[in-house]
Amino acid sequence: MAKNRLTSPCKAVVIGGSAGSIDVLMKLLPALRPDLSFSLLIVLHRRHSGESSLANLLSVKTVMPVREVEDKDPILPGQVYLAPADYHLLIEKNQYFSLDFSEKVNFSRPSLDVTFESAADAWGPEMVGILLSGANADGSDGLRAVKKAGGVIIAQKPETAQSAFMPQQAILSTPIDHVFDVVEIAEYINSINR
Amino acid sequence: MIEDIEVEWILNDLLDFYGYDFSNYSRASLKRRITRLMTMDRFPSFAEFRYRVRMDPDYLKRFVEEITVTVTEMFRDPHFYKSLRTEVVPTLGAKPFIRVWHAGCATGEEVYSMAILLKEAGLLHKSLLYATDLNPGVLEKARHGIFPMAPMKLYSENYIESGGLEDFSAYYTARYDQVKFDESLGEKMIFSTHNLVSDRSFNEFDLILCRNVLIYFDKDLQERVLNLFDESMGQLGYLALGSKETLNFSAIRQKYKQLNREKIWRKIG
Ligand SMILES: C[S@@+](CC[C@H](N)C(=O)[O-])C[C@H]1O[C@@H](n2cnc3c(N)ncnc32)[C@H](O)[C@@H]1O
Questions:
Q1: How distant, in Å, are the alpha carbons of A56, A105, B76, B179, B180 from that of B149?
Q2: Which of A113, A138, A141, A177 is catalytic?
């Protein structure tokens, strides 16, 4: 079989999404085991004014702690981390976050590419990158970096996405390991490190 | 991306050749910025890039400006400015003289925002705003008080959200795609280079703002810089950080009390 499962223990699953992704997360989070042995990072495009309520919205759907990241927060297993609005989210090699207030990338801050690329550099073969619904081309380059670093990459099945463009774009530009609907994504995540 | 070891080589060169110490900066950010700069400036190899940084002081200037991230906005986080306006500025009013320090002021948008708050509170005439940054180039821009026109609509919305009641556009005159802010705002500003890594405390302040600068430092350097601020803080002075930065892990924490939910602390000990 092609190498489309991780061969090293997984440290993190990084999920990126844009338009139409909040609905996916509202279905995905409750379907996950509560005792994940890795960290779950979520990076979403959102409008920048006062949406810290997104963390509250998501936390209702899971028993795992959901935290909107602050600078230099440690990255711990079994936790859900949400990228804050209007910062890029970076991963340091010794398992903590840094935030970055630099130029937008793909008209976005946070940018999915920026976090995927930084995660690929920090975790390489110990991570999974997942790209959900969206109307923007952000995320494709990032997934490619994850793949190149030895990680596994997954795109939401475009037919099941509210906005098919983003996963479609990734599928066209990179050999994706798995193209999954939401139920399959949940099953895959639940099977990691087991 | 370039290799980790290449980042270390560049950092060593900067220290050896120019005396700039970036060794406690966030590696994830440095690596991304250096890779980005190499691509933007089309260097065919890391070796050529390194050679240029070592040998060309003009290019060094560009290098430092690009890797330190000088992006900024006016009235960024309007609710933060609202807290300054309603809770901090009024308590400063009782002082005969108000000293403010903007550490890492970039091109000055934050300093002009502060000057507007002080002016509207009738306090600007007895205030002095010290604005410092590592990059001489951004300070030169800040001194002129000239900003791009394009984001003015956003700034104006931010201003209103921060509790501003005036006509924001009355603070500047537009020329082509740029605006120049009223000279009376700039009169109370002193711009100067200051490196938070290596330079000392230079005065005592009633309010120190250092926003979105600590995110580029590791925890050790953050602690050193927070101590520098503490040394530079007058009795009952305020420290304001960026919206995702915190004092909570620092030893100076027990001398400070956080105001409401914003990242503003008051020195009480
Ligand atoms: C992202 S900007 C923040 C600007 C503004 N405070 C804001 O929040 O919008 C970061 C600034 O910190 C400055 N900086 C970085 N390292 C520094 C150092 N060691 N000493 C002083 N300034 C530094 C950079 O030159 C840059 O202008």
A1: 37, 21, 16, 6, 9
A2: A138
- A171, HSE (Cβ side, Cα atoms, 13 Å): 16
Whether A138 is a known active-site residue: answer yes
The DSSP code for A94 is T
Task: DSSP for B33-97, please give it.
Answer: HHHHHHHHTT-S-HHHHHHHHHH-HHHHHHHHHHHT-----TT-SHHHHHHIIIIIHHHHTTSSS
- Residues of chain A found within 8 Å of residue B250, distances taken between Cβ atoms: none
Model confidence, pTM: 0.96
Q: Which CATH architecture has domain A13-43+53-191?
A: 3-Layer(aba) Sandwich (3.40)
Annotated active-site residue A181? The verdict is: no
ipTM given for this complex? 0.95
pLDDT, tens digit, for every residue of B94-150? 999 999 999 999 999 999 999 999 999 999 999 999 999 999 999 999 999 999 999
User: Which residue's alpha carbon is nearest to atom 27 within ligand 1?
Assistant: B106
Residue ranges of domains in chain A: 13-43+53-191
Q: Which residues does chain A have within 8 Å of residue B79's beta carbon, measured at their own beta carbons?
A: 50
Give distance in angstroms: CA of A69 to centre of ligand 1.
21
- Give me Rg for the CA atoms of chain B: 19
- Kindly report the CATH class assigned to B78-267: alpha beta
Mutate to test the interface with A, among B26, B81, B159, B216 (most CBs of A within 10 A): B26
